[in-house]
């Protein structure tokens, strides 16, 4: 299989698990519909795939990690629902479909996000691996998705919107929190769970550095695509960052320098894989490049 075929196989594993994870849980029917509407709307499933691949490269069976990895996707999906709300980015489209609050109303959309966030930790804690490693990996994801990570980054994004005083260092800090922290946490949690098979602190360090590099690359490319992307490919209108007065990498550096910086990040990520061998190592290197080259 080539890289895209392999990514699709990983995504199919994740999608099947996600299609079952909120059914039969005693959840009110309307809430299930709202949660599944966004959770099953597609997407590349990059975060759970990163968790799965790091764990698999370091020796863990994929099925053991799948509940944990899918919990990360629930957290990511909750963040998208809340980001789209009128009080936040006020977006009408997500992945080519009306946003959750446009279909179910603001109140149920908020509760769908809340439901996904809390159910995520139930899934992660159910993974059949040593309890001390599950706790450690869950703590990593809680930090990445909380006030010092994704939520805090969203607050900074709101504070900085419409301001023109931001420099590159401040922009990178915001995006390391808002976008990068959960991507980094996905890699690190996979390495932590692999300690059941002999992974060590150096593996965790390499996963952290790899995740930080691709997390930054991911956001840079997002900023670029908001200018030059295709609306059909993206599934949402382009130019929304500029319309909302957001500071972006192209606004600070220009498109050429932004592309160069994204490529530098991909190279840093690949360098973190030098000590490893095997198909998973190659897949992670190709994934770093895919993040830079993607069109959606």
How would you describe this structure to a colleague?
It is a single chain. The chain is mainly α and 296 residues long. It has a single domain, classed as Farnesyl Diphosphate Synthase, CATH 1.10.600.10. It is built from 15 helices and two strands. The chain has helices spanning 3-20, 29-39, 46-57, 62-83, 100-104, 106-125, 131-145, 150-160, 168-193, 201-228, 231-234, 240-243, 249-253, 255-271, 279-293, and strands at 93-94, 97-98. It has a two-stranded antiparallel sheet with strand order 1-2. Helix 1 (3-20) crosses helix 4 (62-83), helix 9 (168-193) crosses helix 10 (201-228) and helix 14 (255-271) runs antiparallel to helix 15. The chain is globular.
For the structure shown, list the relevant keywords.
mainly alpha; two-stranded antiparallel sheet; 15 helices; 72% helix; globular; Farnesyl Diphosphate Synthase; 296 residues; single chain
Structural class: mainly alpha
Supply the CATH architecture: Orthogonal Bundle
The succession of helices and strands, N to C, reads HHHHEEHHHHHHHHHHH
Briefly note the CATH topology name: Farnesyl Diphosphate Synthase
Summarize the model shown:
This protein has 15 helices and two strands. The protein is mostly helical.
How are the secondary structure elements laid out?
Blueprint: H1 3-20, H2 29-39, H3 46-57, H4 62-83, E1 93-94, E2 97-98, H5 100-104, H6 106-125, H7 131-145, H8 150-160, H9 168-193, H10 201-228, H11 231-234, H12 240-243, H13 249-253, H14 255-271, H15 279-293
Antiparallel strand pairs: 1-2
Helix pairs in contact: 1-3, 1-4, 2-6, 3-4, 3-9, 3-15, 4-6, 4-9, 7-9, 8-9, 9-10, 10-14, 10-15, 14-15
């Amino acid at each position: 299989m080539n890289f895209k075929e392999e990514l699709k196989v990983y995504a199919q594993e994740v999608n099947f698990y996600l299609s079952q994870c909120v059914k039969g849980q005693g959840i009110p029917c309307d809430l299930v519909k709202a949660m599944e509407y966004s959770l099953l709307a597609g997407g590349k499933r990059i975060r759970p795939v990163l968790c799965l691949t790091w764990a698999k490269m370091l020796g863990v069976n994929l099925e053991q990690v799948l509940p944990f990895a899918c919990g990360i996707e629930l957290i990511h999906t909750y963040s998208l629902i809340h980001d789209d709300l009128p009080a936040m980015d006020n977006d009408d489209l997500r992945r080519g479909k009306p946003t959750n609050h446009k279909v179910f109303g603001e109140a149920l959309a908020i509760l769908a996000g809340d439901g996904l966030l809390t159910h995520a930790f139930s899934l992660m804690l159910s993974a059949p691996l040593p309890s001390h490693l599950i706790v450690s990996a869950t703590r990593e994801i809680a930090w990445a998705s909380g006030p010092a990570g994704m939520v805090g980054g969203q607050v900074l994004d709101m504070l900085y919107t419409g301001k023109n005083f931001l420099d590159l260092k401040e922009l990178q800090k915001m995006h390391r929190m808002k976008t990068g922290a959960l991507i980094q946490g996905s890699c690190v949690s996979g390495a932590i769970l692999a300690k059941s098979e002999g992974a060590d602190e150096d593996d965790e360090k390499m996963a952290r550095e790899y995740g930080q590099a691709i997390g930054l690359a991911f956001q840079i490319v997002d900023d670029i695509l908001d200018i030059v992307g295709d609306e059909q490919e993206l599934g949402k209108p382009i130019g929304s960052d500029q319309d909302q007065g957001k500071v972006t990498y192209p606004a600070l550096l220009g498109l050429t320098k932004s592309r160069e910086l994204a490529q530098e990040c991909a190279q840093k990520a690949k360098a973190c894989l030098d000590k490893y061998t095997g198909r998973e190592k190659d897949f992670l290197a190709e994934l770093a490049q895919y993040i830079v080259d993607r069109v959606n």
